[in-house]
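Field reference: "sequence" (input) and "structure" (output). Example, Cyclin-dependent kinase:
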Amino acid sequence: MQPPHNSAREVRLLHRTASSHVVPIHDAFRDGAGHLVLVMPFLPLSLDQAITQPKSGVMSVSMRRCMRDIFAALAYVHSQGVIHRDIKPSNILLHSTDGPAYLADFGIAWGEGDADSEPKERKITDVGTTCYRAPEVLFGDTAYGTAFDMWAMGCVVAEVATGRELWEGGAVGTELVLVGSIMQGLGTPTAEEMGSLPDWGKIEFKRYEKRNWEELLPGVEADVWDLVSGLVKWSASERLTAEDALKHPLFEGLD
């Protein structure tokens, strides 16, 4: 239970964000040894177990529904002043391969006004998991917001569409491997895009040209390119919100 991990805060934030596609918490209690026990429904699959290599480049209807479910969860979570901070396929639970999907594991989530959350402008940057971590925390921004989760969701959507991780994460603690991988895809950012981040400018990076999304996500339908490109942006302020994502054409016509 070293920061940012905190199970007691997790219980509070799960209650605060209770909604259709956040995993419900039925009970929480201390056992005889003093351990905090969280009681939740059993969901047999996580998204990482359900992701397969698409054969046609078209995301299945069931996976579109699952992605829509998680954007709906995040729209509500964010409206409650909460940042999940660890969006990744293994933290998305499924009732079956056809869904529905639920956002789980709020163990390192941040909640505005919560007693055990860091001050708003001094958040912990050692959050997220390897290749899903957003640029702002890689470059020392302690005032990051909900756009942190949206970058990670862009990475998840790309992974669902292709069957592989969007960026090379390297081993834990090797952020430069991840930074290099992102730059080789999105191009080396300009000072205007990154200049306000505390650790930008401390290292001089090789200049990479931006690659197009047809090359980064080969064989994938245009709606997926369009959604991912709206989420995976250097500048956090330019990323789609969860509510924006729910209106995307990729989700049109779903029941």
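Strands lie at 27-30, 36-39, 45-46, 82-83, 92-94, 101-103, 110-111.
The mean pLDDT is 94.
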